[in-house]
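Posting this for the archive.
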Amino acid sequence: MVGCAQLPTPGTVSTTPLIDFSECGVSVGFSGNPAQIPESDLQPLLKGLGEYAKWNATAWRFSKYRLGEYAVCICREYTLTFADMGEPKGWIPVEKSEKILEGIGAAAEYQQDRSADERIRMQIVYIFNPDRCVVMQVVTAPEPGIASRSFFSSLGPPSNVTRRSMIQAPAMPVADRLRQLEQLLKDHLITPDEYARRRRVVLESL
């Protein structure tokens, strides 16, 4: 994905307009009015994720000059894990360990240098509820670390839900999430390593 836009002054990126990704249960704020990406343009991405699952995706983008912002909500009909997606090829992890976005999901950041003056930073967020969805946010810019901070931090609950209420009322109790993980392990849908990692993420969200 390639975009062009003038870099904003750090901290001045507006979190409006907000785009609601209803299936993922989140919203994302762009620096300007975004355009929806045609479904046909998303087929190569979905095909790369695997042909045996039924994938649904919604994506929006904003670009201006040398800045590009992209957000994609991807869901399937059953639980989605880090192991299912795998580490993006050619991308360098920005943080080795997963981080928790309180009330939203578990996130990881990656970066890729496309050329001397264009770098790409991506945040992948595995949504806690529903746990069959993932949100990918991508920023292209000469210095994406600056631009991505505002864009990535704009990820939050739907525009009609406050972040505070979302945190105070988690969609699924921790005990239920742990039981669900145990069942996935028993059904051989996740590996023991994936089970241990996801269990740690759940417990760290307390």
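Helices lie at 39-49, 82-85, 144-153, 163-168, 174-186, 192-204. The mean pLDDT is 76.
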